[in-house]
Design brief:
Blueprint (H helix, E strand, L loop, with lengths): L2 E2 L3 E3 L5 E3 L7 E2 L10 E4 L2 E4 L4 E2 L1 E6 L13 E6 L13 H4 L10 E2 L2 H10 L4 E4 L8 H13 L3 E6 L5 H7 L5 E5 L5 H8 L5 H12 L3 E8 L7 H15 L5 E5 L14 H13 L5 E4 L9 E2 L6 E6 L2 E5 L18
Parallel strand pairs: 9-11, 11-12, 12-13, 13-14, 14-15, 15-16
Antiparallel strand pairs: 1-6, 2-3, 3-4, 5-6, 7-10, 8-9, 17-18, 18-19
Helix pairs in contact: 2-3, 7-8
Length: 337
């Protein structure tokens, strides 16, 4: 469904400037922006994907992954088409690398229907995921307002490349900011996201924390891209100093895909090294992802080391947290439980 965008500037000669993501595309009349989901028609910018759903399912929040916000809760998870990045190893490239046109199967779901589906399936909240939700801004804001009125929680699974203006429009209605920090250098972000700089992503994430959102960080550790000690330590140090030591950091295993099919899966030893770096930098909760059965996909008390939550992939096997506290030492565990 086409709908007028809510955040753009009209320029001379019927050009417009989109202010949804940090690319801030200047779009001539009759053209689309970099993500190809927004078109300039006669000096008015329109979203081409309002309510256009390519993927929808009910998932545990652990699949995002988010480990410290009501573990075991089920969320209506849905995504659309397109992205403002073009990650070469994208696992959802069929929808994220969309280049316009009508070849992909999508279904229009209104915000009202979305909320009804969440309630019907007994969901705890709504998660916008699978592709980048930032470029779905108009739809996610309308949906988030309805979700909050219904008592549902809301979650963005995002690359964080949103503008301050767009974020501030969304933030009153968003509970969980699950952000990818793909590296800690401009070079890495240029190779992965085709952007010139990444500091704006860090600033937005710090803003999310300041606004009281629950924040968790994911780094998909990719051989030859972001697996150096320098980059991993940079991420861990930034989390500790700018988000707080209680902020969970998920270091996940890369599997060869798309343009990175020639690489090998991330060695587990590399992930364990990232875990050690995170702990050395003072993080309380570092998790390994995409390594089923590894002990560091579980949650341990940061004070006494007691096993609190035992996981099997995305399922909770055991959860001993009571009233938000470790039952062994009575320490308050950061998050919502």
């Amino acid at each position: 469904m086409k709908k007028e965008a809510i955040l753009y500037e009209k320029l001379k000669n019927k050009k417009v400037k989109c202010n949804v993501c940090q690319r801030r595309c200047v779009i001539p009349e009759g053209k689309t922006g970099w993500c190809m989901t927004r078109v300039n028609e006669g000096g008015t910018l329109y979203s081409l994907i309002y309510g256009e759903v390519s993927s929808i399912s009910v998932n545990p929040i652990e699949k995002k992954p988010v480990f410290h916000f009501y573990p075991g809760s089920r969320w209506l998870s849905l995504g659309s088409l397109g992205c403002n990045f073009r990650c070469p190893g994208c696992q959802n490239w069929q929808i994220a690398h969309w280049k316009g046109g009508g070849t992909e199967e999508v279904e229009y779901i209104s915000p009202e229907k979305e909320i009804n589906l969440a309630v019907e399936h007994g969901c705890f909240g709504i998660s916008w995921t699978f592709n980048e939700p930032t470029i779905w801004l108009e739809y996610t804001i309308d949906s988030a307002k309805l979700a909050k009125a219904q008592g549902l929680y809301t979650n963005y699974v995002t690359n964080g490349f949103i503008t301050v203006e767009a974020f501030d429009m969304l933030s009153p209605f968003l509970d969980v900011w699950r952000v990818d920090i793909k590296g800690f250098s401009d070079e890495t972000y240029h190779r992965v996201g085709y952007i010139k700089g990444f500091r704006g992503i860090l600033e937005i994430t710090e803003r999310a924390k300041k606004y009281g959102m629950h924040v968790e960080v994911v780094t998909n550790v990719t051989p030859g891209f972001n697996d150096s000690d320098e980059e991993l330590r940079g991420i861990a140090s930034w989390i500790k100093n700018n988000l707080g030591p209680e902020t969970p950091w998920h270091v996940t295993r890369f599997y060869p895909y798309l343009k990175l099919s020639h690489l090998t899966p991330t060695p587990i030893s590399t992930l364990e090294n990232a875990w050690s770096i995170g702990k050395e930098e003072g993080l309380w909760y570092v998790y390994l992802g995409n390594v089923p059965g590894h002990k560091w996909e579980n949650t341990y008390c940061h004070n006494c080391g007691e096993l609190l939550i035992e996981r099997d992939v995305f399922e909770i096997i055991k959860n001993t947290i009571k009233d938000g506290r470790c039952q062994q030492c009575n320490t308050l565990i950061p998050g919502r439980f």
